[in-house]
Amino acid sequence: RRRSSWVTVADLPPSYPFGAEDAPTNVVFGQEPSRLTQRISAGTLAKLVEHLTWHDFVDPDFIPMFLLTYVGFTTSSELLALLEQRFDVPIPAKIQEDPEELQSFQQFFIKPVRNRVFTVLFRWIEDHWYYFAENPGLLYRLQAFVDGPFQQGLPMAHPILKRLIDKKVAGESKEYQLFGAKVPKSRPPEVKAMNAWDQPLQFMAFHPEELARQLTLVDFEFFRAIRPTECLRQAWTKEDKTMRAPTIVRMIEHFNAVNRWVTMSVLHSESSRTRGEVVSRFIDVSAQLRAMNNYSSVMAVTAGLLSSPVTRLKKTWQQVNSSRTKLFEELVDLVSPTMNYKNLRLALHTESPPCIPFLGVPLNDLLFGDEGNEDFVGAVRLINFEKWRTIAEIIQDLRNYQSVPYSFRVEPIVRAFLENIPDTQALDEKQLHALSCEREPKSGRGSMGSGGSTEKLKGWRESFKRKAKSERNLNKDGPALAHDRSATQQSPRLEHSLSSSVPPAGTLSPTSSPRPSLRSTSDAIGNAQS
Fold it and tell me: What are the CA-CA distances from residue 244 to residues 238, 248, 345, 407, 442 (Å)?
């Protein structure tokens, strides 16, 4: 049994989409020495699918990256059609009368190609079933292909694919159970119900650890539901974002609600001592969130405490003891935007899941990955897969965190409170600032706390302001942010509308340089002044 060495791709019929030899006009590879190890950089759609199902080797990294991002440059219907054509390999005319060469061609080309198509289909169905679940026409075509040409060409693999499709149709996916039976050995005190549900400071009756646990479960529900399609083409910034990126939009809204809830809770009481207790409680909650690797709510809570209406409350911060002040400084350092959120990124990549990232960082990475790279390259306009590889790496990081759930048990009382957080839109930014001034009227002296903590907080806010000013200069033509930029400043927010202006040449190197930070978040926090 010898390989049919004198049969080349060019011997395949012209009607076969994968019958063209590699050439600069249809594919571009990296600098690796051989085809077996080359990394595809750009190509026609047919060449990308050919590489996806190459008969001589399997590229394990290329398949998941392609399936994560293909809707950015083609459609599911077109991809399925190309896989069907790829599976149906024609026999070159010059070997049809040579049984030995025909057997060799079938063994070393047709069978490997069909096995690669099987692999791609299996991963597509297993990891991205929603494409088929939401498109009955696509599902019908898939089933017709699997029960027809696929079964005839790969009878041994047909039952595997058939069973997988049947399980998916029946809803028997392999998704994990969000709330497992396992509960950590160390549990906080039992939660006691309040007599009145309308008390704004009801959460003070909850243990900080339990409040952090339940907030983490809520956050993770949002986070795990984000689909790769929501991360493509800046879907969360478009006019139809609620249709194209519904989960990202909901998670952003939840982040902003928690952020404003923290600010309003601190301002609720007329007593500086009570306000100090509320600030201390939120510091404890944020520290627990940090221990649970919930960086999303760590940012929301910490930034809420650093909002202008809160940081100006000198008497309030004087009620916070030194140990909590030091703890808060550590949290501030963690979420600082310095060096493009260096500390936050480092913590995120050194901790083991379960983990919930601050969504602003990957969203901004995706934005710049999209805007900083062309869709097509060369005069023949080949699909720039290096761009989609960069985006796929970011999405894959998110999916890795999505795959490991938290095992905390739901506490109904705390959960009910978090699902009905007091109306965070009851007061606008001017009203919050006015309420803050009512709680502690302005004085001629500095406003935030005293001593080293004051300088620490001011320094963090100043870093946001400098970053925001720098980015506004780079994005003068970008759209204005959605929130008000009035003299009475607001608390940090994660916005739906990010800058859509393309960064200047030299400011982005998606494969090596640090990724730019989230403009809207840094801009908002940077403008928070007392």
Answer: 8, 9, 27, 30, 45
Contacts for 303 with CB less than 8 Å, ≥ 6 apart: 259, 335, 491, 492, 525
At 28, which helix (H) or strand (E)? strand 27-29
First vs last C-alpha separation in the chain: 81
**What is the token pair recorded at 316?**
């309030």
Is the separation of the CB atoms in 357 and 295 below 8 Å? yes
**CA–CA distance, 464 with 229 (Å, rounded to integer):** 31
**From CA 206, how far away is CA 190, in angstroms rounded?**
9
Which of 386, 345, 344 is CA-nearest to residue 369? 386
C-alpha of 1 from chain center: 49
Ramachandran quadrant class, 463 (left: phi over 0; alpha: psi -120 to 50; beta: rest) = alpha
pLDDT per position as a tens digit, 95-150: 888 888 888 889 989 999 999 999 999 999 999 999 999 999 999 999 999 999 99
Handedness of CA 494, 282, 306, 427 (dihedral sign): positive
Supply 194's token pair. Answer: 């309040």
Rounded Cα distance between 214 and 220, Å, is 10
Which amino acid, 380?
V
pLDDT digits (tens, 9 = 90+) for 486-517: 333 334 456 543 333 333 323 223 333 333 33
